[in-house]
Amino acid sequence: MLESFDKVRLQVNSQIAAVRKPATLLVAIEQTLPANSAPAAYLVALTSTLDQVKPKADPTLHCAVLYLLSLLVPTLDGPQLQPYASSLLSTSDNLFKTYATDAPPLKSLLAIASATLSSLPLATLTSGPVPKRVFTSVLLLTVDARPKVRRKAQEVVAEVLGNPPTPASKHPYRQESSAWIAEKLDEAVRGAKRSGEGDEARAIALLVFVKNLGASWDPAVRCARAEKKASR
Predict the structure, then answer these.
(1) Beta-carbon-side half-sphere exposure of residue 217 (alpha carbons within 13 Å)
(2) How far apart are CA 115 and CA 48, in angstroms?
(3) CA dihedral over 150, 155, 156, 160, signed as positive or negative
(4) Which tens digit of pLDDT belongs to each residue from 91-108?
(5) Are 137 and 153 in contact (CB under 8 A)?
């Protein structure tokens, strides 16, 4: 975390507002914290700021908070993160729609979702609707037209499914995720037969995604049309 934040502070005099804002926000937050504060103290300050700032009222500041959280949250372990997981996921649940067309904050949300979902115990993942909705928002982005957003979303899905919560041997979202990806893959194969290159490229990208999922893919789920196409 410290190394990432050191790089952010260097941008405090940047001429680009979107770059300068996280730096000035970080400096302002650190002025309220004791010297050598633990990462958890930063998390408290940033989540509190996120609750106070509205996206429409100050979008640059709001995106700056998300960016700093995207650097901080992945550095925390489960016990540090779990007390704030519910708040982070509830906020993210709404913001995936708010920033649907804005790639930078969307990538910040993906990083936050990855670490937060991976920190949750099995009971939380399976009992409440919010974690599942956030994961579904991430899953939908694995077929996004923007390459950087799509790759990041696929990395998040692979990370979450690849780390099932104790004592589960497989992630509770594995089967449904595999079935959804298989459906999208078959749709892309059908489209490639009709219209050609665009859908063919999408099908290839999804095949690579399935391959990268490895053991996180549910072997009971088959991609019939994709397998037929690949065997030719």
Answers:
(1) 16
(2) 19
(3) positive
(4) 999 999 999 999 999 999
(5) no
